[in-house]
Amino acid sequence: MDPKHLFLSLFNFFLLSGQQTVLGSSHRHHLPRTHHVFDFKPTKLFVFGDSYADTGNIGKPVASSWKQPYGITFPGKPAGRFSDGRVLTDYLARFVGVKSPIPYRWRKLGIKHLRYGINFAYGGTGVFDTLIAEPNMTTQINFFQQLIKDQVYTPQDLQFSVGLVSVAGNDYSTYIARNGSAEGWQPFITQVVNQLALNLKRIQGLGVKNLIVSGLQPLGCLPQSTFTSSFQQCNGTQNELVNFHNLLLQQAVVKLNNETKDSKIVILDLYGAFMTVFKGKGGSKFGNPLKPCCIGISTAYSCGSIDGKGEKKYSVCEKPESSFFWDTVHPTQEGWRAVYSVLHANLEQI
Question: Exposed end of the chain (fewer CB within 10 Å): N or C?
């Protein structure tokens, strides 16, 4: 599907809608003091979403996140994170002031391991069913509701908690894979954001009043899109789709915040943060930020691929800390660190 025509039906809408108002990014690099940011000291973090937030929920036989060379920076071996090291969840946990919560699939380790919250995020999923059908966000929230019903978490636990919701575009890649029409993009994006808003409201209704939800990153700048230009330039038409999504999300969050007085939802401006880093600000030390560190030796292979003889079919750069992207979709640990450093003022608005 030609991207130049794929998003053509949206252009007039963008011209009429004007620019999205987003929560500001910051170039400051000090770590915020969370007890000044919140009017309470958070004790737990509950995480919902996909591979940008997943810390090990997706199973070993399936995911590249459990294969070499994932995890080579942290913890030194594959551990279920889609990166060479830490991911968005780990940095948000640091901000909240708790340890990164354990994946939901490890919940049977015992109650003491659940004291910092729990992570339901699962690589490849979305707001709706994707090519990896379960658990979508509705199912993840169902898991959470069951834990509350089982009294794993008390109302007081929830009162002193923060929620992270991170969906990074799998609904849209699924739409393309299922041959969705160009004319259908606008109503489909509207459906995705409307359902996401219902999910946010439902999480708040379960007792987690303060939420951090990620806006969509510039999908047109992911290496899977920029490889056609030898990783030299972003796909502007894809980023227009992202702008539409983020505009609708901003409007939905404003509406939700206006409806409630004892709760707050803050949007993480991933689009602005990624772009700030790409432009060399925010402490960036990346040469070509659009070029991934780990990549398949041909389009038939991806990072972590091996053939039937066990031979590697990928290459890895010498210094992952000098690359923004780890593979064709996910940032490196250093990439996430750079993004996080740009988001401090955004977070401080909670």
Answer: N
Closest of 220, 208, 197, 251 to residue 101, by C-alpha: 208
Per the residue annotation, which of 302, 330, 341, 344 is the catalytic one? 330
What is the model's pLDDT at position 31? 36
Phi-psi region of 118 (alpha: psi -120 to 50; beta: other; left: phi over 0): beta
Contacts of 200 (CB under 8 A, 6+ apart): 165, 211, 213, 252, 253, 256, 265
229 labelled catalytic:
no
pLDDT at 273: 95
Q: Residues 288, 268, 84, CA angle at the centre, nearest 5°?
A: 45
pLDDT at 39: 73
DSSP-H helix ranges across the chain: 3-6, 11-17, 34-37, 88-96, 137-149, 155-159, 170-177, 185-205, 223-226, 236-259, 270-278, 333-342, 344-347
Q: CB–CB of 336/217 below 8 Å?
A: no
Q: What is the pLDDT of residue 284?
A: 57
pLDDT of residue 276: 92
pLDDT at residue 111, rounded to an integer: 83
Q: One of 25, 26, 50, 51 is an active-site residue; which one?
A: 51
Q: Is 298 a catalytic residue?
A: no
Q: Which residues of the chain have pLDDT under 70?
A: 1-38, 61, 133, 281-284, 345-346, 348-350
Catalytic residue at 30?
no
What's the sign of the alpha-carbon dihedral 71, 227, 284, 171?
negative
Closest by CA to 73, choosing from 266, 305, 263, 294, is 294
Write phi, then psi, for 339 (nearest 5 degrees): -60, -45
Strands 294-296 and 314-316: antiparallel
Please check whether residue 88 is in contact with residue 53, taking contact to mean a CB–CB distance below 8 angstroms.
yes
Q: What tokens were used for 264?
A: 């707050």
Domains located in the chain, CATH noted: 3-287+341-347 (3.40.50)
Q: Which of 90, 157, 171, 327 is catalytic?
A: 327
